[in-house]
């Protein structure tokens, strides 16, 4: 009888054991490897972003991550498989590039609002730049174009060419940069254009008299214009200085004022000035004690003014 009870007890215990052990404890789900989010916002204002590239810094560029242009103000996100050091580049609709090198991207991801300040200067494709002589009566002898970040003007872009009125000359520069321009005419007058942005469309500068470099105006705000009315004699030197002081530097510099031409420089208004010019023969012509107001002074030098 004990054996029967024992057998029955074993059966019951076995049933209870299998009943309790037949269901495995729930296994915690193993999450997928954490993806790392990278977000881009187009902050370029007026330009679409056509391409986005992001790849490990120790490898080559692989593929464009967007299939349609990213319009200004729009955000785009992608996921990376792992943290690491990445190079990132976006290209806008004009082909200008914006690049970040060696960006450390961790588990928290990365966000970049691309703005014009991120532009890769001077790294775009070469584009054509044209300078046109719109001065009417003066040839252009020298022409310069250089990145605004440079200290000097670099080489003369005209070479042996002289640009007559109405003529133009073209050359190539890398797009995606700010440029400064300067040309010099037959009289030695210079004309400047600073901080001109050159994009994929290139650029044309028609030089006008209004572009003349009046940096000498830093001395004052009153224009002094000297007109050569001597007929057959060039003016080699021009002076204009306060009457209570000595003669200063020659205002013409290395230029020569030919008959029928005029030259302008600036002095401070509200003072009394003496003016003197000297022709190619060494003859001088002088005006003494001229009160100069803000509208300046115009002097047509004639033989009657000879000292």
Tags for this entry?
7% helix; Immunoglobulin-like; 44% strand; 1 helix; mainly beta; 3 domains; disordered N terminus; three-stranded mixed sheet; 307 residues
Q: In summary, what is this structure?
A:
The chain is mostly beta strands.
Report on this model:
By secondary structure, this protein is mostly beta strands. It has 3 domains: 36-118, Domain of unknown function DUF5300 (Immunoglobulin-like), CATH 2.60.40; 126-211, Immunoglobulin-like (Sandwich); 215-305, Domain of unknown function DUF5300 (Immunoglobulin-like, Sandwich), CATH 2.60.40.2890. 7% of the residues lie in helices and 44% in strands. The protein contains 1 helix and 18 strands. The longest helix is centred in the first third of the chain and has 20 residues, at 2-21. It is elongated. Residues 1-7 have low confidence and may be disordered.
Kindly state the number of beta strands: 18
Give the mean pLDDT. 86
Poorly predicted runs are 1-7
Number of domains: 3
CATH architecture of the largest domain: Sandwich
Major sheet summary line: 3 strands, mixed
Stated plainly, the CATH topology of the largest domain is called Immunoglobulin-like
Radius of gyration: 38 Å
Overall shape? elongated
| Widest β-sheet, arrangement of strands | 3-1-6
End-to-end Cα distance, whole Å, is 156 Å
The CATH homologous superfamily of the largest domain is termed Domain of unknown function DUF5300
Structural class determined from secondary elements = mainly beta
The residue fraction in helices comes out at: under 10%
The arrangement of helices and strands along the chain is HEEEEEEEEEEEEEEEEEE
Strand-residue proportion: 35-45%
CATH class of the largest domain: Mainly Beta
The total of helices stands at: 1
């Amino acid at each position: 009888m004990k054996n029967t009870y024992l057998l029955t007890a074993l059966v019951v215990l076995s049933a209870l054991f299998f009943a309790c052990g037949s269901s495995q404890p729930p296994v915690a789900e193993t999450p997928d490897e954490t993806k790392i989010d990278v977000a881009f916002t187009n902050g370029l204002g007026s330009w679409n972003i056509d391409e986005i590239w992001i790849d490990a810094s120790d490898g080559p560029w692989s593929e464009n991550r967007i299939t349609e242009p990213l319009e200004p103000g729009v955000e785009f996100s992608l996921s990376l498989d792992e943290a690491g050091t990445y190079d990132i580049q976006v290209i806008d609709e004009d082909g200008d590039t914006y690049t970040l090198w060696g960006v450390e991207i961790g588990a928290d991801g990365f966000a970049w609002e691309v703005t014009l300040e991120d532009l890769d200067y001077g790294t775009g494709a070469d584009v054509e730049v044209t300078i046109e002589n719109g001065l009417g009566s003066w040839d252009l002898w020298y022409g310069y174009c250089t990145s605004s970040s440079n200290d000097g003007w670099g080489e003369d872009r005209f070479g042996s060419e002289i640009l007559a009125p109405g003529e133009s000359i073209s050359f190539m520069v890398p797009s995606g940069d700010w440029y400064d321009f300067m040309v010099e005419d037959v009289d030695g007058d210079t004309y400047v254009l600073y901080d001109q942005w050159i994009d994929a469309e290139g650029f044309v500068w028609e030089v006008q008299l209004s572009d003349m470099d009046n940096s000498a105006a830093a001395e004052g705000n009153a224009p002094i214009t000297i007109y050569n009315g001597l007929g057959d004699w060039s003016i080699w030197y021009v002076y204009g200085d306060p009457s209570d002081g000595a003669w200063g530097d020659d205002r013409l510099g290395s230029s020569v004022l030919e008959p029928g031409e005029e030259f302008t420089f600036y002095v401070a208004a509200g003072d009394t000035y003496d003016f003197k010019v000297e022709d190619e023969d060494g003859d001088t012509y002088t005006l003494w004690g001229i009160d100069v107001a803000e509208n300046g002074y115009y002097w047509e030098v004639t033989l009657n003014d000879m000292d």
